[in-house]
Amino acid sequence: MAKFSSVLIANRGEIAVRVIRTAREMGLRTVAVYSEADAGAPHVAAADQAICIGPAPAQESYLNGAAILDAARQSGAGAIHPGYGFLSENADFAAGVEAAGLVFVGPDAHAIEAMGDKAGAKIRMLAAGVPCVPGYEGADQSDAVLKAEAERIGFPVMVKASAGGGGKGMRLVTRSADLPEALTRARAEALASFANDRLIIERAIQRPRHVEIQVFADTHGNVIHLGERDCSVQRRHQKVVEEAPSPAVDESIRQRMGAAAVAAAKAVGYRGAGTVEFLLDETGDFFFLEMNTRLQVEHPVTEMVTGLDLVAMQFAVAQGEALALKQDDLELKGHAIEVRLYAEDPANGFLPVTGQVALWKPPQWVRVDSGIATGVDVSPHYDPMLGKVIAYGETREVARARLIAGLREMGVLGLTTNTEFLIDVLSQEGFASGQATTAFLEEFYPQGWTQAAPESRVIALAAVQLLSEEMRAAQACTVTLDAGLAGFSSDGLRAVPVDLEIDAVCHVVEVAGFGMPEVTVNTADGKHALAYGEGNEVCRVDGQLLQWVSTTAPQGGLFLQVEGRHMHVRRHRPWRSGPGTAGKGQITAPMPGLVVSVQVAAGDVVAEGQTLAVLEAMKMQHQLVADQAGVVGEICVAEGAQVVTGALVVIVEDAE
Q1: Where would I find the Lipoyl-binding domain in this sequence (predicted)?
Q2: I need a surface site. Which of 48, 129, 177, 369 has the fewest CB within 10 A?
């Protein structure tokens, strides 16, 4: 293969930053591409050169292969690294890159096409002797045939996009009556994500482990595996926590599964980094799920237990070099666990969140691969993943404890993230004991995840931080005040009442001794002593250290994060106009997005829970359902319309 000295990264976010980092370490010149929405993104600043490739929508920028190839020509790049997602598993794009005389850092188009089509891939795997889940992969895609095949296989079944991955176009169906809508939704997501609406159906294996093998192949016929990753903790088939090695895999399973993964790669003449995914049942049997013909989101855990840089290996293979590692050289040391940081609201059905990152403070002592920075906007146009936090330890328990500590220290202010939820997941005994299966989240959070009310000591800390923010604001407005007198009062120990509002909930507290090294706060649930260290960056509440970070909120008050919990703290103002809550029957958009379909008309009689419209946001489709039985009174949007959070979509009136 041709040598190259510069590489264009056809992606955005954390993976673009991560690829740029290794490329620069290897002396390669880096070229970033960006949409108009990403002009200020970290990956743009990190590269040697950056080229705008179109408007914000992915179809007009990051999925626009012609624009990316044009950017490569403009920049003189000799290779293109696709990252993951977007065009990374698009065979036509890979072929186009090589036809343009450039090196595609990944497998060739044949391998991508062979493994990207789940139906065809499964047929190839069966021929190669790789264990597969029973299912249907046929060409007849009529609803009647798919329904008949599902009945033959037996419920529950998995409906999957044949061309997809990452949970897009995937539905678990437990009964025949739910199949038609599942087929409709899966086809729509598949078409939007992969421009291919073909589906396959497989038997749903209950409570398996999701275990994958990292494979690597060069152009000299060498294929090896780098051990396994356990990705069982998932929500809607999207991975939440990943670790290496798997707590459920012994050396015997590792060897058998590794051999099957190598056979899968050899069956398609693979080149570069790839991942073969399996379902592992309680007996130790495993079944081929799919092969991802690219670098995985969770590759850092493999890097940490092997000591290898997988991106550097990708570049070496792409330049025609032979693998420097043989299978017998593989040695796994220690344990690594990764969590995915998302802009989403776990307490509100994990709905994606948009907004500006008011402050980004990555933790120390753990690895963080992120694509955000202070002041960056999180838009509705792309996946809501902000980055990954990864911890390594000599044992699994050390890695788990370090990861929890890192998440508590980390600060992501200005918008809701899943940080507190991740801490909760990692703290569950079921995870700590290594027993998590793909049913983990449903079993431990059967009603969804609920955020507890803030602890009394956290309320006390919030009150003092708000007063400190107000004092700093007052000092900024005067030039005559001696800073040493700030907070002084002849009766400084007298309790001062504060009506504190935390995320729209009022808490009445009393603060005594504000401005002094030790402060006393009375809350509804107790009395707390707060002692600050040097620079007020360390606080002990009742003698216990609390991890916190804060910054001024544009809406007034401050954003405060205490050990993973994000809060908007300000003075309570009863007359303040809030966003309001839609009344019963008023169905609103839970986030900005595109109205894909409206499935009812004015005058229709609807049942509670019936789908009224479908909203597409952050690459996923969200069903808006009736919150009561009644009659559709008004349709407030049209199909194809872009709506903002809170926009009225459908009004359902009480039936007379």
Answers
A1: 584-653
A2: 177
Q: Give the pTM.
A: 0.84
Q: In this structure, are residues 53 and 37 in contact, taking their beta carbons and an 8 Å threshold? A: no
Average confidence (pLDDT) over 281-286: 90
Residues ≥6 apart with Cβ < 8 Å to 270: 107, 111, 215, 217, 223, 293
What's the confidence (pLDDT) of residue 120? 87
Query: 138 and 100 in one domain?
Result: no
**Pair type for strands 642-643 and 209-217:** unpaired
- Whether the predicted pLDDT of 579 surpasses 50: no
Number of neighbours of residue 182 by Cβ within 10 angstroms: 21
Determine contact, residues 551/557, Cβ cutoff 8 Å.
no
CA angle 251, 271, 27 (to 5 degrees): 105
- Least confident among 164-168, 234-238, 559-563: 164-168
Which DSSP state fits 534?
A: G
Q: Cβ distance 69 to 98 under 8 Å?
A: no
CB-count exposure of residue 292 (10 Å: 0-12, 13-18, 19+): buried
**For the residues 148-157, what does the mean pLDDT come to?**
94
Residue 403 in any domain: the answer is no
Question: Can you spell out the DSSP letters for 308-348?
Answer: --HHHHHHHHHTTPPPS--GGG----SEEEEEEEESEEGGG
Q: Calculate the average pLDDT of the chain.
A: 91
Q: What pLDDT digit, counting tens, does each position of 168-189 carry?
A: 889 999 999 999 999 999 998 8
- 648: nearest Cα among 621, 624, 631: 624
Model confidence at 620: pLDDT above 80: no
Q: How many CB atoms lie within 10 A of CB 527?
A: 13
* E strands present in 218-361: 223-235, 238-244, 272-280, 286-292, 335-342, 344-345, 351-352, 355-356, 359-361
- Answer yes or no: are the C-beta atoms of 189 and 620 closer than 8 Å: yes
Give the pLDDT confidence score for residue 537 in this predicted structure.
65
Q: How confident is the model at residue 193 (pLDDT cuts 50, 70, 90)?
A: confident
C-alpha–C-alpha distance, residues 156 and 175, integer Å: 7
What's 132's DSSP letter? B
Q: What is the pLDDT of residues 105-134, one digit of tens each?
A: 999 999 999 998 878 898 899 999 999 988
The CATH number of the domain holding residue 74 is: 3.40.50.20
Flag whether pLDDT at 486 surpasses 60.
no
User: What is the mean pLDDT of the segment spanning 557-575?
Assistant: 91
CA distance 466 to 552: 9
Last residue of a domain, which of 185, 203, 221?
A: 203
The 3-state DSSP composition of the chain as helix, strand, coil percent (nearest 5) reads 30, 30, 40
Q: Which residue is listed with tokens 């459920």?
A: 248
Q: What is the four-CA torsion angle of 526, 531, 535, 536, rounded to 10 degrees?
A: 0
Please give the tally of structural domains in the chain. Answer: 4
Domain of 142, CATH number, reads 3.30.1490.20
Query: What's the pLDDT score for residue 81?
Result: 98
Nearest-angstrom CA–CA distance, 571 and 498: 8
DSSP 609: T
Residue 514 lies in a domain: yes
156: preceding bond cis by omega (within 30 degrees): yes
What pLDDT score was predicted for residue 491?
A: 56
Residue-level pLDDT at 581: 46
